[in-house]
Write a structure and sequence with these properties.
The structure holds two protein chains of two kinds.
Chain A: H1 3-21, H2 29-39, H3 43-52, H4 57-89
Chain B: H1 2-23, H2 27-48, H3 62-82, H4 88-113, H5 122-149, H6 163-182, H7 188-206, H8 214-236, H9 239-263, H10 267-272, H11 283-286, H12 298-306, E1 310-315, H13 317-321, H14 325-337, E2 341-346, H15 356-363, E3 371-373, H16 374-377, E4 386-390, H17 399-402, E5 421-426, E6 446-450, H18 453-466
Parallel strand pairs in B: 1-2, 1-4, 2-3, 4-5, 5-6
Classes of the chains: A mainly alpha, B alpha/beta.
Chain lengths: 97, 467
């Protein structure tokens, strides 16, 4: 990709982020923070690339660590968010547990 | 062709991320949104395995990748399933820190590769160095935030003489090294030096911030990690990273500013204000107000409830810590059965993050319609018989309205002191998370019921039955 194309994509993503987020009601801010937290775990893609292309022990080690961190960020982030949101839509008639 | 296929997958991923954030506008569609984003993420990861390097070689080290996925999935899912709803803020801090760490690690590995060709690629160089710095600050800062919220560290601001000067000097040093590295002189050792300095900067930036402000810090660091991931997208020429990172960088910033707005304090004050320091101690005496604390038994408090027509429940973090949300809901149902009007007043920063209290009450199956925001309910307190404050403190401190010396001056509060009777369930007279005394507790219309919130409320329910 040309540099200008890359910059364009980035800037547009930032503006979409500003626009979409501004409309979320305050009650959902905690799940939202958690969901965006999971989304930036997309760095995992970077971890996989680095680990997959590593050909010396140091790169292998750092790439491995990056991938583990990324996976924890993604999996943990989405699971935690789902647990929170599940509570918002649970039907009251289910009764006390 | 291969590259196009991967980029189309990444584009689909980006669309799911944006749709997900849009679906999070409402509680009914939010869960679907989260699920959609998770699917998008899976697609991006799957597509990544088709990437080939400059020499046309596919990704290697597949056993290592598989092991990393197994280990990470296990740790992530296990901790996310196990965590208590009250501990959510520190869980988010921990995950965020790991994300930041991953960005920094990717930058460390990519740096030497930038000098592999005959010419130095200047843009990737700049973004590599920046993503290393921002990712590291996010990592160490998040870990300190985690420590504070988990109470491994004191929640009070940790300050020392010349702190701002040292932080500033450290910042300048980081900028200088970044500038030097950007000139294209390859120096891996200097890069590791920069890593150390950035990690230290994250620690010294967050240590002086009080525990009550940690949600703002986490939100800001969340934005940092997003930016850093976006910058890593420049390095790896990867649209999934560019878009995902950019989205989160922007959203985290908006969310941070929203939180500051709820507390009526500028972001700079949160980050550099050392809010809730020891200087606020003894503010009650200095304000010239004095009075006695009226401590009632649970039975006496029950009588007040039995003669009330309207009750507003104000839950705070103390209720969450005591896991009292279920007994509170039972009490509310008993009151409602006696034809008493029951509402919940939710302060924007009740709990430890915006919306945190809503999650906790939703966990206890409290009907959504009974929850009211600060703006909706504040006008109702003067016509309310009983305001029941459970483990809340700073968000009901009247000093925020008039006492310019108070650290929380100007923060919108719930006007519980205007209710006919205020019943406060609290463990002890100790100050709240912000470390400030509260004159509400010595007001003539306030009754204190000391003890663990869960036990107190359960006893209150039982006492009400006996009447």
């Amino acid at each position: 990709m040309t540099l200008i194309a890359v910059i364009t994509i980035f800037i547009l993503a930032v503006f979409v982020g500003l626009e979409v987020i501004a409309k979320v009601p305050q009650t959902l801010h905690t799940p939202l923070m958690s969901a965006t937290n999971a989304i930036h775990g997309v760095i995992l893609v970077g971890g996989v690339i680095v680990l997959g292309q590593a050909n010396d022990p140091l790169s292998l080690f750092l790439g491995f660590l990056a991938t583990v961190f990324g996976v924890i960020n993604v999996v943990g982030g989405f699971v935690v968010t789902d647990r929170m949101l599940e509570m918002f839509i649970r039907k009251p008639k289910k009764g006390a547990k | 062709m291969n590259g196009d296929f991967i980029n189309v997958c990444y584009l689909l991923t980006a669309v799911t991320f944006m749709l997900a954030l849009k679906l999070m506008n409402g509680p009914k569609t939010a869960r679907l949104g989260n699920l959609l984003a998770a699917c998008g993420m899976a697609l991006a990861i799957a597509a990544t395995f088709f990437i080939k390097d400059e020499n046309g070689e596919s990704l290697g080290n597949l056993p290592w990748i598989a092991l990393a996925f197994l280990l990470g999935s296990f740790l992530g899912a296990w901790s996310a399933r196990r965590v208590q709803m009250t501990a959510m803020p520190q869980m988010v801090a921990l995950f965020n820190g790991l994300g930041g760490g991953a960005v920094a690690l990717v930058a460390l590995v990519e740096y030497p590769h930038l000098f592999a060709g005959n010419f130095v690629k200047s843009v990737p160089l700049v973004t590599t160095v920046l993503s290393l710095v921002i990712g590291s600050v996010s990592f160490s800062g998040s870990m300190i935030a985690y420590g504070k919220l988990q109470e491994l560290l004191t929640g009070r601001p940790i300050t020392w003489p010349g702190q701002k000067f040292i932080n500033f000097a450290l910042f300048i040093a980081v900028v200088a090294v970044v500038a030097f590295l950007m000139n294209g002189v390859p120096s891996v050792s200097l890069l590791y030096g920069l890593l150390g300095m950035a990690l230290l900067l994250g620690v010294t930036l967050v240590l002086p911030i009080g525990g009550a402000d940690m949600p703002v810090v986490i939100s800001l660091l969340n934005s940092f990690t997003g930016c850093a991931a976006g910058l890593a997208g420049f390095v790896l020429d990867n649209t999934a990273l560019l878009i995902g990172g950019g989205l989160v960088g922007a959203s985290g910033l908006i969310l941070t500013l929203e939180m500051c707005k709820a507390m009526n304090r500028p972001l700079s004050n949160v980050i550099f204000g050392a809010f809730g320091g020891g200087n606020a101690a003894g503010a009650l005496e200095s304000s010239g107000k004095s009075g006695t604390v009226r401590s009632y038994s649970v039975e006496d408090a029950a009588i007040i409830f039995s003669s009330a027509n309207s009750v507003i429940i104000v839950p705070g973090y103390g209720m969450a810590v005591a896991q009292a949300q279920h007994v509170v809901k039972e009490l509310a149902e008993k009151l409602a059965a006696r034809d008493i009007d029951v509402k919940y007043a939710i302060h924007p920063v009740a709990g430890r993050m915006p919306g945190h209290m809503n999650v906790l009450l939703a966990e206890a199956d409290v009907p959504y319609e009974q929850l009211f925001d600060l703006d909706e309910i504040n006008s109702e307190f003067p016509q309310t018989d009983v305001a029941l404050v459970i483990g809340a403190n700073d968000v009901v401190n009247p000093a925020a309205r008039y006492d310019k010396a108070s650290p929380i001056y100007g923060m919108p509060i719930l006007d519980v002191d205007k209710a006919r009777t205020v019943i406060v369930s609290k463990r002890s007279m100790s100050p709240g998370f912000a470390g400030i005394d509260n004159e509400l507790f010595i007001n003539p219309n306030t009754i204190m019921v000391f003890g663990n919130a869960k036990i107190t409320i359960a006893k209150l329910s039982a006492a009400l039955d006996a009447l």
